[in-house]
Design goal:
This protein has six helices and two strands; from the N terminus they run H-H-H-H-H-E-E-H. It is mostly helical and 129 residues long. It has two domains: 1-68, no CATH class; 78-128, HSP33 redox switch-like (CBS domain Like), CATH 3.90.1280.10. Strands 1-2 form a two-stranded antiparallel ribbon.
């Protein structure tokens, strides 16, 4: 985190050994990773993902299969929240209609809010059969 409370650098990696595994190579990878230091500090000093791979796999042949930009992007939508309401079942949706003027749902990942009016809930209940 920087002084403004924003994330200045963040990183990590996942390495998975597929059969048949070579224990010597796995041990070598573990030693090289342990000797690297903190990924965040390396990124702050300008290390690129390719440079980190070179350090992790030093002396071990590897191929980069894909490069892709990463971004936080939540896949929530009005429709996905509606499907979540449907999954509650007709009795629970009917209970919400009876008790609430509207239902406010907030995505736990991105904090986007979704509002369903009583009329929308009634229509949803009718569609549920």
């Amino acid at each position: 985190m920087d002084s403004d409370g924003n994330v200045s650098a963040s990183g990590g990696f996942l390495i998975q050994s597929l059969p048949p595994s070579n224990e010597e190579i796995i041990d070598q990878l573990i030693r090289q990773i342990e000797g690297m230091g903190f990924i965040t500090e390396l990124l702050r000093r300008g290390q690129t993902p390719e440079m980190l791979l070179d350090a992790i796999f030093s002396g071990i042949p590897f191929d980069v299969l894909e490069r892709r930009s990463l971004a936080f992007q939540c896949s929530c939508s009005q429709e996905s929240v509606q499907r979540a309401l449907i999954s509650l079942g007709p009795a629970e949706v009917a209970s919400l209609i009876e008790k609430e003027e509207r239902v406010d749902v907030t995505c736990e990942f991105c904090r986007q809010g979704y509002v369903f009016s009583r009329e929308e809930l009634e229509q949803l209940l009718q569609e549920m059969g």
